[in-house]
Write a structure and sequence with these properties.
Blueprint lengths: L1 H26 L1 H10 L4 H15 L1 H6 L3 H4 L1 H22 L5 H8 L2 H12 L6 H17 L10 H23 L7 H20 L12 E4 L2 E4 H26 L2 H7 L2 H14 L5 H18 L22
Antiparallel strand pairs: 1-2
Helix pairs in contact: 1-12, 1-14, 2-12, 3-6, 3-11, 3-12, 6-10, 6-11, 7-10, 8-10, 8-13, 9-15, 10-12, 10-13, 12-13, 13-15
Length: 322
Amino acid sequence: MPVHTTDSSHGKGLGLSLALASALAFGGSGVAAKPLIEAGLAPLQVVWLRVAGAALVMLPVAVRHRDLPRRRPALLAGFGLLAVAGVQACYFAAISRIPVGVALLVEYLAPALVLGWVRFVQRRPVTRAAAFGVVLAAGGLACVVEVWSGLRFDALGLVLALAAACCQVGYFVLADHGGGEGADPLGVIAYGLLIGAGLLTVVARPWEMDWSVLGGSARMNGAVVPAAVLLGWIVLVATVVAYGTGVVSVRRLSPQVAGVVACLEAVVATGLAWVLLGERLGAAQVVGGAVVLLGAFIAQSSAPVPEPVVSRSSAKEPVASA
């Protein structure tokens, strides 16, 4: 028994570390993307470069798991549509109509929506600590993004931001359920990126992109940085590493816990923007960041409610994944 408890604690600690690494990697994407956008690329073009480049990097993994599309076609299609293309496209469409802070707050309602999915769709109980952590994180996030600044109501913009939140729910749920039937997480990510790149090609229209921007340089808070270096960071760190650590962390924790920890992405993004782009933090944002950290800690420190144990006699029966 003590060994099992130690192993469980170790697995949870590793899952939390991976979730934090994922939030850090995802949080750095905006800081690297903004100079490219200011240099002349459209936001959706940067998203396409990010996903298509990561898909190219992960292509050998897809070849190694070439039987995966036959065995798990619905999982791969859902991951590519929701976790890759959907989140990115809906978020960038939303910020074209409503303030970035409002869109980010609505998108990060996802942890609360994940909790609702677990409770009302899967009909599994959730801990009070996880629910309280979501409330704290959402309140702190409102301070981080200063949601009260420049609020203007646009129904379509809010719907698009909510769609991004729903797609993010799909990311956590699919990452959690994808572990069954031998679905290797790296294989799922590789095919998800390939599918997402194909879908984004239709809306981003890369053939209209000014490719010369990538051969030049961009300015980051007064410093001149090669555009290729920024693109490399977005592809390798903010996408390949971010998705890889994120999917594995969800499987070691739970969708609701990993979802709350993912709220740290906004804190990371704001902090990096302060250091690298000169976008200063206000007192309310600092306090909000601390509240997000507290909410994430409370949520992850409570173990998810375990599912009913399957007896040995029924262990040989195939169990359909939810």
